[in-house]
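FAQ
Q: What does a multi-component entry look like?
A: The components come first, one per line:
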Amino acid sequence: MSEYVLMSGNEATAEGGIAGGCRYFFGYPITPQNKIPEYMSRNLPEVGGVYLQAESEVAAINMVYGAASTGARVMTTSSSPGISLMQEGLSYIVGAEVPCVVVNMVRGGPGLGNIGPAQSDYWLATRGAGHGDGRCLVYAPYSVQELHDWTARAFEIAERYRNPVMILADAILAQMIEPCKLQPRGQPPPLDKPWAIGGDSSERPRNIINSLYVNHDEEEAVNRRIQARYDQAARDDLYYSEYGDEDPEILVVAYGICARVCETAVERASEGGVKCRLLRPISLFPFPSEPLAQWAQLAHKALVVELSMGQFVEDVRLAVEGRCPVELLNRTGGNVVTPEDVTQKLFDMAAES
Amino acid sequence: MREELFMAGTGGQGALLAGQVLTQAVLEKGLNVSWYPIYSPEVRGGTTSCAMVITDGHVGSPISGRPTTVILMDARSVQQHIERTAAGGVALVNASLAHEMPPVSDVRIVEVTGTDIAIGLGNERTTNMVMLGAYIGLRPVVTIEELARALEAVLPERHRRFLDLNIRGLQAGLETCQEATDDT
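Then the predicted structure of the entire assembly, as tokens:
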């Protein structure tokens, strides 16, 4: 195990950013993700990067917009209330078709809420990017290792689609410590993206980064171009994992920390004679609707486990399209569903059929 | 083997540090491990706890509703958490600070006068190491030598001068529970 180091999810996320070539970080402190800016403030200058604590989340996301416009690998991180404040900026970034990475370590809400774990920003993450037809591509790691690896990978995906990528996790994944194998720190790619602004030093024709399209047809063309990229991401950058029995009675669907809880519950249910298959979406937008529909066809019923009031379950029901009944088990407000809760629910569901 | 450990106390008692030392030792031993801290927003005096999973298999859930072992460092922790101990599990209690036990069934309660032992060693603040030493007496997931090495790795530079005290704390705790090793 010597190649592994113990790291919190926050630290592994920050180091993942550096490994992915990020050299610019703009942010504003908020629990439970403060270890990320702390880590960046110490480590980014070491690799020739820039760490800047902005005066607010609104300022931070607009600094990200500016850096992204030059083709630089740039990220910001925050937690729920801070991500709300960034929505306007994200909409402009989507509209201007520039890439960036945003991490949301979700905490209890609404409002100021609390610093406990939650998944109640599911809609904000998957529908959000503020106003307009834009969305973020959203990836939901479920371990310290995956936080590291997906943050590193996010920059490449963001550049492929010229769109923000959001890494969605929660207060548990942010703060828990697990062994992590670190990727080497990558070099950022050259800035000379064909669309980027280069200032006076650029020799190519002048680019303009902008999200204002006065002409309606032009705006519609932009919307269709952005949508075509989302459609491509649904083909090329759709990710999910599966766990448990191949001949399931119950299909269990969960992402992030809930999928960890469900893995243990699925094992215990199997030991108790209830066959379950866990499908864990890693990409939340694009959403793995097809594999979900296939498993829903085989299973007699489905259970969705989430730390929100029934947000994620809506996407599952849209994918399942009535192939089997879908039940919801949830806790909110900073509380967590335990493996014991899920196991009991699975036994209860099996007993009903 | 799957051990779900929950350690709780009041902010400043060192439950989080003790958990991190154990986590480091378990990693070095080649087992799988997760450590998750839970604390209230107070700077001092709030409730503080950590949940750990130690296993030779897949960690899966890093949290547990029914931990197999709980280490409770004060009266408030005992009142709040002892009932969550899994059936057949162990509750290791700092009997220097917790005198009343809520009724629990099918839980083995082990009382160690952690704070008194730590004061005897010269510093109350090593209570956490006394409790951790007692823990490996009950659940020998790692050896005291492995814990001592982990302490060196985890202890911040500014606290290095307490290394020897902490190791003596581990030793004193282990001695209180060593006879119980056969049970596990």
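Q: Is there any commentary attached?
A: Sometimes. For this entry: Chain B touches chain A at residues 20, 23-24, 27-28, 30, 32-37, 41, 58-66 (CB under 8 Å).
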